[in-house]
Amino acid sequence: MSPSELKRNYEIKNPCGKFFSRENMTFAGDTMANFGCRKEKGKYLLYRKNKTRKGFSGGFIFDAQTFKYLGVYSFDGIGFIHYH
Known about the structure:
This protein is α+β, with helices and mostly antiparallel strands.
């Protein structure tokens, strides 16, 4: 699934959700082109390809069934995912 498909499904399943709003993206200094997406253990991981202008580099977790935002994650040096 591409980041744009994840965004579309999120907005369909969560019509009041603000995660992908212009205000949130602008605040973080992000664009959709900076995101990648992969599925892992029944969840979608939305990751940043590069740090943003404001230095953000972590990723986000979405449920694969409901597309609900579940939280943020970061990688350690060995490749393990830490959920917050």
